[in-house]
Amino acid sequence: EEPDAFSGLDLGLKSGVEIKQPLIIANSSLAMIAAEYARQENLFEVFHDAVFRAYWQEGKNIGEIKVLMGVAKTIGLDTSRLNAYIKDGKWKDSIKKHNSSAQDHLVSSVPTFVIGEETILGAQPYNVIKETFSKTIHSLKSKEKEINDFPNPTR
Questions:
Q1: Coil, helix or strand for 28?
Q2: Fewest beta carbons less than 10 Å away: which of 15, 46, 81, 112?
Q3: DSSP-based three-state secondary structure for 114
Q4: Helix or strand or coil: residue 56?
């Protein structure tokens, strides 16, 4: 059965992952900076999963440095180097690049999906996402046909 709307809770239930509605809405900026450090250390996926668990399953405030340091420690990141990375500000260019990309795609809410040339903002019914994929696939097939039908003198 297809869900009525995309949501983390729906996906959690379908995948067997228990997701609890957090009691706080965390400012995830610090977590994003820490994730950039984890990326440099080739631990982005592991860090991302651990932060997700901390927030959505354990209800921790991922906007707090002590929470992020605890998460970092559990996955083997050097917390003193992470702390230095956060303080030295070298992450600013990377974050600017990500923010610029988000602005280019008119991202103003979470979740946001960019599918081909279409952008879907916020939680939407499943059929909206499915129709957007179908429309994008149809458009790509039409473009492919135009290219293949274009006269080629070398054929």
A1: coil
A2: 15
A3: strand
A4: helix
Quote the Cα angle for 49-50-55, to 5°: 100
Distance CA 71, CA 50 (A): 6
Q: Is residue 42 left, alpha or beta, with left meaning phi > 0 and alpha meaning psi from -120 to 50? A: left
Q: Hey, what amino acid is at 99?
A: N
Please report the sign of the dihedral spanned by the C-alpha atoms of residue 120, residue 125, residue 126, residue 128.
negative
H or E element, residue 112: strand 112-115
pLDDT tens, residue by residue, 18-30: 777 767 788 888 9
Neighbours of 71 (CB within 10 A): 27
Name the token pair of 144.
């492919």
Q: What is the CA radius of gyration of the chain?
A: 20
> DSSP for 40-90?
HTT-HHHHHHHHHHHHHTT---TTSHHHHHHHHHHHT--HHHHHHHHHH-T
Q: For residue 120, what are its two tokens?
A: 């879907």
